[in-house]
Amino acid sequence: MSIYATLWKLKFPKDGDEYPGCEWITVIAQGVPAHIGSLTSGREYEDADPIAEFLPPPVPTSDGGDSEYMRAVVFVTERTPKGTPRSPQEYVNPLLVLTGEVYARMTFETLYARICQALRGNKPKVVATSLLPTGGARIFFEDGRSKEVDA
User: Fold this and answer.
1) H or E segment at 103?
2) What is the pTM of this model?
3) What's the burial of 135, exposed, middle or buried (CB within 10 Å: 0-12/13-18/19+)?
4) pLDDT tens, 33-82?
5) For 68-118, how does the pLDDT look when each residue is reduced to its tens digit (9 = 90+)?
6) Within 10 Å of residue 27's Cβ, how many Cβ atoms?
7) Are 127 and 143 spatial neighbours (Cβ–Cβ below 8 Å)?
8) CA distance readout (Å), 11 to 5, 75, 88, 133
9) How far is Cα of residue 107 from the mean position of the Cα atoms in its chain?
10) Beta-bridge mates of residue 30
């Protein structure tokens, strides 16, 4: 059984920046309910939290396992493998891991920027696009480089 519940799936620019002809990738938000790993007395994880090494700390829950916020939200792509030597529930290199409270309080604009930065990694950001008479486009990067792409 998985500890995750899929919250949503959305398309994002594969390399973190949208431009004519860019590739798109599906990003999945996987929520971890508050009761998972809860150290609340009388629950199955009362003595130890088996997922503490790869998720934010557990959140306090009611006797019914409810909380105002999820424990965590993990962002992955459809290609992100799940299962490590440490835990079959751990994603290998997730894009982003947030506490449930941070996720709930974050604007979508901020979340979008963080996910795009994670997708971009160490690559330079796109700063401008110029449409060419040939029907293609020239993409300009913050490091001064540029490349021509088919639009």
Assistant:
1) helix 100-105
2) 0.88
3) exposed
4) 998 887 655 555 556 777 888 999 988 888 888 899 999 999 999 999 99
5) 999 999 999 999 999 999 899 999 999 999 999 999 999 999 999 999 999
6) 23
7) no
8) 18, 12, 26, 29
9) 14
10) 6, 74
